[in-house]
Amino acid sequence: MRKMLLLITFLSCFCANAEELEVINRAKSWLVLIDNGQYQQSWQQTDSLFKQAMPQSNWSNVLKQVRVPLGKVILRKNLSLMKYDSLPGTPDGEYVIIQFQSQFMNKEQAVETISLSKNSGQWQPLGYFIN
């Protein structure tokens, strides 16, 4: 019985970690589009709520003003991942907020925060902030 309980605990942890790894990889692949200046493609991959709030031309302009001056990414490592059932201004659903500790050519320390939604069945970016 004890072995069965340990196995169930291990498998549930493994599944949670696999899902976390999936969403982290999704966020990182989306950030690579931004890193490479592929702003149109990054916008196309966002959640419909993001698209409603941020027209594509505005998204490109904001990234050119905020992200371009930082320069090339030198380092990006996972800082935190938090799961939520709702976020302000959004319907109830599956949400994740991921923070990365990042270093850019022109800014040694930054925190990139990405919110993602799984409301369409797959993880899609819903917000992006750099501090």
Could you please describe the fold and organization of this structure?
There is one protein chain. 44% of the residues lie in helices and 31% in strands. With 131 residues, the chain is an alpha+beta fold. It has one domain (2-130): NTF2-like, domain 1 (Nuclear Transport Factor 2, Chain: A, Roll), CATH 3.10.450.100.
List keywords for this structure.
131 residues, alpha+beta, Nuclear Transport Factor 2, Chain: A
Structural class: alpha+beta
N-end to C-end Cα span: 49 Å
Q: What is the molecular shape?
A: globular
Query: How is the largest sheet built, in terms of strand order?
Result: 1-2-3-4
Main β-sheet: number of strands, strand sense, barrel status? 4 strands, antiparallel
Mean pLDDT, all residues: 89
Radius of gyration: 17 Å
CATH superfamily: NTF2-like, domain 1
Count of alpha/pi helices: 4
Reading off the top of the CATH hierarchy, the class is best stated as: Alpha Beta
The percentage helix is 40-55%
**CATH topology annotation:** Nuclear Transport Factor 2, Chain: A
The CATH architecture name reads Roll
- Stretches with pLDDT under 50, minimum 5 residues: 4-15
The figure for the number of domains is 1
List the helices and strands and how they pair.
Blueprint: H1 2-35, H2 39-44, H3 48-53, H4 56-66, E1 73-84, E2 95-104, E3 107-117, E4 124-130
Antiparallel strand pairs: 1-2, 2-3, 3-4
